[in-house]
Design a protein that fits this description.
11 helices; five-stranded parallel sheet; alpha/beta; elongated; Rossmann fold
Length: 278
């Protein structure tokens, strides 16, 4: 595949990233256009990157970072839905979060794009998690039977600005805690202390409430072969706290986005039904 073909394949994704980063499609497209102009002027600029996709995003990042107003939405244009709050995160952590959570880059590729080392990249992702949590803080239910792991997760969740409503070690405890206070996010192990399943507990909870779920487990194959809830996120043990932080932000951000889209579709269907019945 030629370089031009590879770039063309990535353009829709780069436009998506640019919009989320800048706050509007028109502003994002201006940066994409500037990136393409720079690429046409110097096609060899991608050669030094580990892949053409990484090189394209790295070139875009250099251009985006060179403009002083890049952290502000363009005046007079529509911005992203308010509950997404991505434009409220400072530029560099916002880049790190979107590269990992939205664009699916590995930590190594994201660090290459931002021209930093892995430790810096992980710090930026953690910072984005804290800033995003300040905008969409929620109540978190932890389902985990190992005390030290539960404490680590609880400390991380609270450091991101969320409130832990409780730690459940069994299926029954998880249901009881959720009945007392409805969680806005669930972090769950799959194999619990009494031999019960965190997966079963989550599926039972989701029959009555809608909430994003992150499974943190040493047995990921049980998630992949069982009756798993959708949408759900999976982190394998042993895990890095930076990864958990990023996935929490991702689950809350995209969970809000999905519900916004569902409500919009419901309203559209209601309006269309009204037109047909009228």
């Amino acid at each position: 595949m030629s370089t031009s073909q590879a770039v063309l394949q990535q353009l829709p994704f780069l436009r998506r990233y640019a919009r989320a980063l800048s706050g509007s499609q028109s502003s994002g497209d201006a940066y994409v256009a500037a990136t393409l102009e720079a690429l046409i002027a110097n096609p060899q600029v991608l050669d030094s990157a580990s892949s053409s996709r990484v090189g394209l995003y790295r070139l875009f990042t250099k251009i985006w970072n060179s403009v002083p107003v890049n952290g502000k939405p363009e005046a007079g244009v529509a911005v992203l839905p308010p509950e997404q709050h991505l434009t409220q995160i400072t530029p560099r952590p916002r880049q790190a979060f979107l590269l990992v959570a939205l664009e699916g880059f590995s930590e190594e590729d994201a660090a290459e794009i931002l021209d930093c080392d892995l430790a810096t990249l992980r710090g930026l992702v953690e910072e984005s998690g804290r800033e995003l949590a300040a905008e969409i803080a929620t109540d978190v239910l932890i389902i985990e039977d190992e005390p030290f792991i539960a404490m680590d997760i609880e400390t991380l969740v609270e450091s991101l600005g969320h409130n832990v409503i409780g730690i459940a070690r069994t299926h029954a405890e998880a249901l009881a805690l959720a009945r007392k206070k409805r969680p806005g996010l669930i972090l769950a192990d799959i194999q619990l202390a009494d031999g019960t399943s965190g997966l079963d507990a989550v599926n039972e909870l989701l029959s009555s409430i809608e909430v994003p779920v992150i499974f943190i487990t040493a047995f990921p194959e049980r998630f992949l072969t069982g009756q798993r809830p959708e949408p759900a996120f999976l982190i394998a043990k042993p895990f890095q706290l930076a990864v958990v932080s990023a996935v929490i932000s991702q689950a809350l951000f995209f969970g809000r986005k999905a519900r916004k889209r569902e409500r919009t579709n419901e309203r559209r269907a209601t309006v269309e039904s009204g037109f047909r019945s009228g």
